[in-house]
């Protein structure tokens, strides 16, 4: 066990980000382990040899510093911050760190009774070589987890951290309820309201007739050619590869579904303010990206998509209660449920864009491969594209609305669209 003692305890409302992921968890349970994720820290050379006691002390200080790591979900739901406790520790001797992380992440958290970070030490003899951390998404998002790893590395090297902790979820919940927070929420809600009164009710509305058991499947396309093409297009159009790929996904959704107006929900980090940039909490929320695709070519859409992407980013920092109200009112007024069920999540930490040579793209095409790494019964969405490292694009979809064959066709079609546009 790793013991810790923090500075404060109490309850507070969920932040907007916590509420958003809590709602997603409720719609996905009992397959909500889907939202678990993790990090592996190799003990830095300057901290070796690192004993179990030394690394345990570092993890304990980490949990004391970041209140999200010792916050449970209480009835309400509310943040239930504890000021002391013991964090279970697993010792994995001579194990493969990635396998340990997979095991730690494989089961859903007990949100009311389990600390939202699981910890394992990989050891060789008496020395800790790696720290494996599995996170509950209610405690942190990907960028928050990077802050955790950075702080733990420094704690192992120096034994302490200079400066006070960053703003905590308790503080963020207070700001979001303040007049300034409400002004932000009202502005975002107005945009959601306007778009919900005119956008198609949903993107994937025609049953596939080819449901699998279980119905939810993920295909992962490893495509260096798509990655190189996105970089070439980003430089050519003076934008980011994320914008290129989001626009390409929207354009292809329009082609596949026949919708001339396409709505995609991109996951946005919401770390644009200095006060939240280094916070360990879950800030990511869905924005609203509306693309008037019509019959336009992808490259023409890319010229025009910049303002729509900015509006999507601004709309992501919203109060989920306002969004629920907007969706309910629009659905009632239009006489049908309104929800895109179409998501886009760029999980990369670096958006690299270099003007790549055409021949380099052509030579990369034979390296494309496709795999099926995941299947499960429930998901809170019908269609979600994830961008990962190593030129990977994943599509997780409900086969009741998009068959496995169509999932594969979509990913290969996305690669083709990017490559043809880059070489045109």
Automatic annotation (TrEMBL):
Gene Ontology MF terms: catalytic activity; phosphopantetheine binding
Biological processes annotated in GO: amino acid activation for nonribosomal peptide biosynthetic process; lipid biosynthetic process; secondary metabolite biosynthetic process
Gene Ontology CC annotation, any one: cytoplasm
Pfam hit, one: Condensation
InterPro entries: CAT-like_dom_sf (IPR023213), Condensation_dom (IPR001242)
Gene3D superfamilies recorded: Chloramphenicol acetyltransferase-like domain, Nonribosomal peptide synthetase, condensation domain
Residue stretches making up the Condensation domain: 10-274
Protein name: Condensation domain-containing protein
Organism (species): Planotetraspora silvatica
